[in-house]
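Dear colleagues,

As part of the handover before I leave the project, I'm documenting each prediction I ran so the next person doesn't have to rerun anything. This entry is a single chain, and its sequence is reproduced below.
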Amino acid sequence: MSKIIRGAKGPPEPREPVRAEDTLNSKEFATVQDLLSEGEIEGFATPSKRGIAQNNANYNNACLADVFLNNTSVLNVSPTLSNSDFLTKLGNLQATDFSFQDVTFKPRFGTSNQTAVGNVDNAVLTKQSSNIPPTHTNAVTQSGNPGPADSPNISANKDAVEVTVTFGALQKFETNGDILGTEVTLKIQRQIDNGNFVDRLTDTIKGRSADPYSKEYRIDLPSSYSQAKIRVVRVTADSNPDEIQDTFSVTRMEEISDDVRTYPDCAYSTLRLSSQQFSSVPQRAFRIRGIKVRIPAANGGLTPTVDLATGRINYPENYVFNGQMAAAVWCSCPAMILLDILTNKRYGLGDQIAPDQSTDAKLYENIDLFGYVAASRYANAIVTNADGSEEARFSCNVSIQGSSEAFNLINATLFGHIYQRPKLDAKIRSLCTIAALIVLDKPNQLPGHITGALNYGWSKEEIVELITQMLFYGGYPTAVNSLAAAAKTFEEYDKRH
């Protein structure tokens, strides 16, 4: 009988120590303000299209689908959701619904009475600040020296204090060689007018960092006080540095005065971004429904309306314009947009074309309002595309960022499209335009068109004869006004030529 002799096992294979992932990066914030538009805008495309009212959490969250950071939208919610499902989703957003974390957004729409943004969820837009050196920058301990970190007395009339705490490292060394994360709890207290220190914030920092790690906090101050102090207190027991590295110090305290400017008639956005998400300020883009413009008012129970999906003005069948304009709304109608550019004093030609805007009659005194409405109805008429889809005949969706762009738009709309129609040449059109302006008694509009007619080859004598002819249609006073405008234009033209 044979025997099997088994040898003893050798020593076990050495275990590879575990090193936890370095999960902590310094958490500080930057707040960025972007001017979106002069004048009041409708708002952001997604909530406007879905009919969500402004100035609430759902609206601000929905806006994030229209906010792009480095060409990526902040909110990742399917645009195909029904309105009810979309609203349900907005009320139950998860971290996975966002492309970026710790993004706070607040819009302003360019009204004349809008409020200041002020602080943005523990951040400030624009701040006037002054440093408050902490009483020490040594480790904040639970007991013994130096103990809690206090600020000196804070000046009155400040809005907040920003506090930065910094860990040299945050990690735990096990006897088996593992290097793991750990956690530290701290709290920040506030004292007002020599009262008791009261807890204002408690935070637990959890994870691992082999490098210095900083985190920023904002502690708001009351609207009225004589003096205040801020204290940072360590809650977690002091540790043995050979076993746990978790000491921290207060490296910055700063008094903050928030920006209280309202920037009336300017639409702008405010974004608060985390340094954990961006190593530098990202590129920003926004999808908005732009400047509100006035459209024709209701008449006889028939009301022009705007399709929020396309911006098209829908004119009811049998609608008759009576010369009245409604309140401003967003639309994509080129005629109404052009009318707004020509009459608006803030960003348009209102100072020249409509200097007196005390009444609608004064506002549109030098404008052929009925002509613009006729052009609007023509532009918004439904046409059928080759693929069978339907849309407005013309629409205007532009971003005008300078006076030269505005001029080019006006020039293209007034002259590029109309003057290029083939049935009448530009020379004949210039004479027709002058005749219309004479009969309408618009002498302020004549000089530019008379100059254009001279450049097209009409003589001074022919232009004077035209004015004389229009006397029978526009009346003697209009002819006199037109002749005076023509005489001045001829004189200036001769000086240049």
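The chain has a mean pLDDT of 86. The chain has twelve helices and 25 strands.

All the best with the project,
I.
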